[in-house]
From TrEMBL:
Residue span, DUF11 domain: 261-353
InterPro entries: DUF11_rpt (IPR047589), OmcB-like_DUF11 (IPR001434)
Name of this chain's protein: DUF11 domain-containing protein
Native organism: Sphingopyxis bauzanensis
Signal sequence interval, chain numbering: 1-26
One Pfam family, short name: DUF11
Assigned keywords, A-Z: Signal
Keyword Signal: yes
Length: 354
């Protein structure tokens, strides 16, 4: 008897070891599968073998609804005012044990702290959802070859993850570091019919039934998305990175016909120097900065005196610019190619008092 028990123990341990070594998919056995198990009994009477007896049992595998929506990446999406087709990226995984449709909603938070810090202060416009086309185009990044979705993902098979892009336009005239929070939420729907969104799914209540029951197994998502509700969600955000320009215009008298450069006065014939300083307190460079200034009728522009790209020290313009710009009466015009974040540059010119 003891040897038999030991043998059974060894067999049982081997079976457990074998099961532990077998990898399992996240979704598991397909919902609706019928599992049948038959037991047999062989016996003897008076040393003579009798007919084998058997009994079977079967049950239907129930449906586990599980999904995951995740932001792809860990940083905000930097945008500029007036930008179109700004992209936030998410991944949707069907971890259920059945092919399903998934209804999608892209919404925006209303105030509060956004996903990557900062306070939500504006809403993007023209919000759309695209599915990554993994056959053509730039796989993993949004491009015009990706599929614009009409509110749902169709027939997403078991253990499959797909990339989704929430695309939006950014309003103009936004301040530097303005933030818009975006939420993508997916909700499981019945699958089985191609190119048509399936019906809503409800969880089976009460005791286990003979047919295919439904159990929600999803974890909680972002605020307002509870666990085991057949939905999941995650947040991302847009952060405006722009140049913020401040313009200062000053003048100083250089000389007059009587005092020359020693304590000159603003009398007719005096030479006046104007300085237009443009400072960028934003977080990105300002480019193609065009400065225009109309010379007053009481002054005569001094040809050849326009200087660009000068610097400012303690609010005073330095005489370190380079020749450039143009004058077409009455306007002085100059273009500064780039004003870096945190920097200031100038346009300087001179005129004579009539």
């Amino acid at each position: 008897m003891t040897s038999k028990l030991n043998t059974v123990g060894i067999i049982g341990l081997a079976a457990i070891t074998s099961l532990a070594a077998t990898p399992a998919l996240a979704a598991g056995t397909t919902a609706g599968t019928t599992i049948t198990n038959t037991a047999t009994v062989d016996y003897q009477v008076g040393g003579v073998a009798q007919g084998q007896q058997s009994a079977s049992d079967n049950f239907v595998v129930d449906r586990k609804i599980n999904l995951l929506v995740e932001e792809v990446g860990t940083v905000t999406t930097n945008v500029v005012p007036g930008q179109t087709n700004a992209v936030t990226t998410f991944q949707l995984t069907n971890s259920s044990n059945e092919t399903l449709d998934f209804a999608l909603v892209a919404s925006q938070i209303a105030g509060g702290t956004a996903a990557h810090g900062g306070t939500d202060t504006f809403d993007a416009t023209n919000v759309r959802i695209y599915r990554d086309n993994t056959v053509t185009g730039s796989v993993g990044s949004w491009d015009v070859g990706d599929t614009l979705l009409t509110g749902y993902v169709d027939e997403l098979v078991v253990d499959t993850a797909i990339r989704l892009f929430v695309i939006a336009d950014i309003p103009a005239s936004l301040a530097n570091n303005a933030v818009a929070g975006v939420t993508l939420r997916a909700t499981a729907r019945e699958g089985g019919t191609v190119s048509a969104q399936g019906a809503a799914i409800t969880q089976t209540a009460g005791a286990n039934m003979a047919g295919k029951d439904t159990v929600f197994a999803d974890i909680a998502g972002v605020t307002g998305d509870a666990a085991r509700d057949g939905s999941h969600s995650d947040n991302d955000d847009y952060t405006v990175q722009t140049a913020t320009l401040a313009v200062t215009k000053t003048s100083r008298v250089i000389s007059d016909p009587f005092n020359n450069t020693t304590n000159p006065k603003l009398i007719p014939g005096a030479i006046v120097e104007y300085c237009i300083a443009v400072a960028n307190s934003g977080s990105v460079p300002a480019t193609s900065v065009v400065i225009n200034d109309a010379v007053p009728g009481q002054l005569n522009f001094n040809a050849g005196t326009i200087r660009l790209n000068g610097t400012v020290t303690a609010g005073t313009c330095n005489a370190d610019g380079v020749a450039g710009g143009s004058y077409i009466a009455p306007n002085v015009t100059g273009t500064i190619a780039t004003i870096a974040a945190g920097a200031a540059q100038t346009l300087v010119f001179r005129a004579t008092v009539n």
